[in-house]
Amino acid sequence: MSTTPERDLPVVDQPSAVQPGLDPAWVAGAVTTALDEDLGPAPGRDVTSQATVPASATGTADLVAREAGTVAGLVVVTETLRQVATRLGLPAPAVTFHAQDGDDIARGQVLASLAGPVQVLLVAERTLLNLTSRASGVATATAAWARELAGTGAQVLDTRKTTPGLRALEKYAVRAGCGTNKRMGLYDVAMIKDNHVVAAGSVAAAVAAVRAAFDVAVQVEADTTVQAMEALDAGADFLLLDNMPTPVLAATVSAVRARQGRDGVPAHVELEATGNLTLDRAREVAEAGVDYLSVGALTHSAPILDLALDLRPAS
Question: Which residues belong to any copy of the Quinolinate phosphoribosyl transferase C-terminal domain (predicted)?
């Protein structure tokens, strides 16, 4: 996840096991926005750190996990330090990583060591922690669902219920936690829900309208088995089975599977369960035969993972 430095800076870019990775241009933009919030418009200022710490002072700080979880967002560390160093006109700290995105980490584990101008370390601290803690919280929540679904053949999906401006980071964090991204936005997959059906007049009319306008996959939401069959007849590519009790869900899955490969229905229709999903019933929902469980809470309700930046005492 390297970015092109404005000058030679002793920064070690963090490799990531998460594919696809974050777009470096997106990372740069997100960090710039976060720093502007914290420091004011570029170059900005930190009136405390710049007053109390000489620009010449150097030191080392450790990025430390205060609790166990799954780490994500380390890819923003070098970019944050680079931008802060540029704003202050100081060298960027060197970074040694001891973990990579997607790793399961223990409480007290040192994730990275940062060595360089103390002003840069302190000015970058909150932005760096806000982004990595948020991403790691999402990855940790996702990993819990992935563990619960292990062996079922079903995957946990995220939704569009993301923090404005941080969707790319949060969906990246879902991947770090062994989850799967559903759609990035309204532009890449059509999802026909009840209001679309009302507006179009019927499921068939809504599907036909999408097909006529755009070359995208079409998903249809169904609350009942009857609605699911109607969506199949209308030519849906996959179905969103919403708020179904497990027995109804299982019956709907069986009915859909029985139609696969017949009467123009694809050989495999992808099925997604959503609504009223909790971790304690995740496995029983998966065992009903769905391909996916979509969980908005992965991004809208995951608490941060508590990370800290500890400056080492001067020797």
Answer: 138-310
Cα(150)–Cα(262) distance, integer angstroms: 31
98 and 160 in a single domain? The answer is no
Closest C-alpha to 111, from 148, 71, 151, 145: 71
Rounded to two decimals, the pTM is: 0.92
Catalytic residue among 66, 160, 161, 283: 161
Q: Which of 45, 193, 257, 312 is catalytic?
A: 193
Residues 6+ apart with CB under 8 A from 305: 65, 67, 69, 70, 71, 133, 136, 137, 139, 140
182 is catalytic: no
| CA distances, 111 to each of 66, 116, 206, 307, 313 (Å) | 11, 17, 49, 9, 18
Q: How many domains does the chain have?
A: 2
What are 258-289's pLDDT values in tens digits?
999 888 888 889 999 999 899 999 999 999 99
- Name the active-site residue from 62, 67, 126, 211: 126
Residues 284 and 307 in one domain: no
306 catalytically annotated: no
CATH number, domain containing residue 63: 3.90.1170.20
Is 125 annotated in the active site?
no
